[in-house]
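Record passed on here:
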Amino acid sequence: MTDYIDIGVNLTGSSFAHDLAEVIARARAVGVHRMIVTGTDVEHSQHASALCEQYPGVLYATAGMHPHHANDFNQDAELTLRQLAELPHVVALGECGLDYNRNYSSPQAQRKAFEAQLAIACELKLPVFLHQRDAHADFVAMLESHRRDLVDVVVHCFTEGETIAQEYIELGFYLGITGWICDERRGGALQQAVKSVPLDRIMLETDAPYLLPRDLSVLPTDRRRNEPYLLPHIAEVTARYMDIDPQQLVQAALQNSENFFRLD
């Protein structure tokens, strides 16, 4: 069976609380044997870590503070995230970054939290799992100031066009491709961008329960909820826009993900 790694799943959310075991079973039945559970604040990072202990070798986690929650970043949060990041099943620092689109936290607070998390990642030699929306210039500037000491960088849920994709690739970053590419309304720029993304810079993710692919012929039981079992569909669509065989993409994404997150 084809092997997949979903590098971004939000399994700590309430939408999965009632049937998580079934969700994981459905994913594994189609070859999604490993999943990286996203930590978006202290509480969800702790929950992600606890889930990994329940599903060893299947679930791994990130630990971080999403920019939406940056106003809550303080010394206690930094200490907890650092402690979580030292656990063997925590494989990246994040989700962190900058989001000036909604500014749920002030840009100043976002930059402070992002800077602190980049410093932890550099110190602990962990890759970073990043979020960026409408903050490209500051995002790149902050990463460039740390690039020499950062182990690896993936821009999670990449939705931009070819120009920004190439800039990230030139900086040595990976791009996480989601079901956004399946969206006929908003996905056009990404559909074009992936045509020039090298195979050694791409990874695949669902960002479940968000970003349910819009082009599914059969909807999930919960029509609004994305799940990791849909990752093979995202791979097929991405491969089509890249004009390559899906297995070529899947194998490249698998190898990139194993190397990036240091998975056996």
Summary: DSSP finds nine helices and eight strands in the chain. The mean pLDDT is 97. The first strand starts at residue 4 and ends at 9. The chain has one domain: 4-261.
